[in-house]
């Protein structure tokens, strides 16, 4: 998720992009946020701080959007698996994994 410079006449316009694609089912999603603070490498410290501050905020915002999207996709996949009869087995496994999260699982060592 690095900023992608866009060509411009004066200072380059910068935007933050992230793309998601999945072959099953064919799904793609693009996340995009333009950075309004100018990117001026030779600018003042205050200008650089403003740019980096905005970029940091946009990265956090985009991360939240991506997490929400992926959570939604996981729920859709879970519902599809349950519709095919795999849900109970997966739910039991997930519950057991959650119960043992951060703990050593002796059953796996055998």
UniProtKB/TrEMBL annotation:
It is found in: Chromosome, Telomere; Nucleus. Belongs to the GON7 family. Keywords: Activator, Chromosome, Nucleus, Telomere, Transcription, Transcription regulation, tRNA processing. This is EKC/KEOPS complex subunit GON7. Component of the EKC/KEOPS complex that is required for the formation of a threonylcarbamoyl group on adenosine at position 37 (t(6)A37) in tRNAs that read codons beginning with adenine. The complex is probably involved in the transfer of the threonylcarbamoyl moiety of threonylcarbamoyl-AMP (TC-AMP) to the N6 group of A37. GON7 likely plays a supporting role to the catalytic subunit KAE1 in the complex. The EKC/KEOPS complex also promotes both telomere uncapping and telomere elongation. The complex is required for efficient recruitment of transcriptional coactivators. It holds the Pfam family Gon7. GO terms for biological process: tRNA processing. Component of the EKC/KEOPS complex composed of at least BUD32, CGI121, GON7, KAE1 and PCC1; the whole complex dimerizes. It comes from the Eukaryota. Residues 7-31 have a biased composition (Polar residues). InterPro entries: EKC/KEOPS_Gon7 (IPR014849). It comes from Rasamsonia emersonii (strain ATCC 16479 / CBS 393.64 / IMI 116815). Residues 100-110 have a biased composition (Acidic residues). GO terms for cellular component: chromosome, telomeric region; nucleus. Residues 1-39, 75-110 are annotated as: Disordered. Its main location: nucleus. The keyword Transcription regulation applies. Residues 89-99 have a biased composition (Basic and acidic residues). Signal peptide: none annotated.
């Amino acid at each position: 998720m690095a900023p992608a410079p866009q060509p411009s006449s004066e200072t380059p316009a910068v935007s933050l992009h992230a793309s998601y694609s999945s072959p099953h089912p064919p799904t793609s999603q693009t996340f995009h946020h333009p950075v309004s603070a100018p990117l001026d490498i030779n600018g003042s410290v205050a200008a650089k701080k403003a740019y980096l501050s905005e970029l940091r905020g946009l990265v956090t915002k985009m991360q939240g959007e991506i997490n929400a999207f992926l959570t939604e996709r996981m729920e859709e996949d879970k519902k599809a698996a349950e519709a095919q009869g795999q849900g109970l087995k997966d739910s039991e496994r997930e519950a057991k994994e959650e119960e043992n999260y951060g703990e050593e699982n002796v059953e796996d060592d055998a």
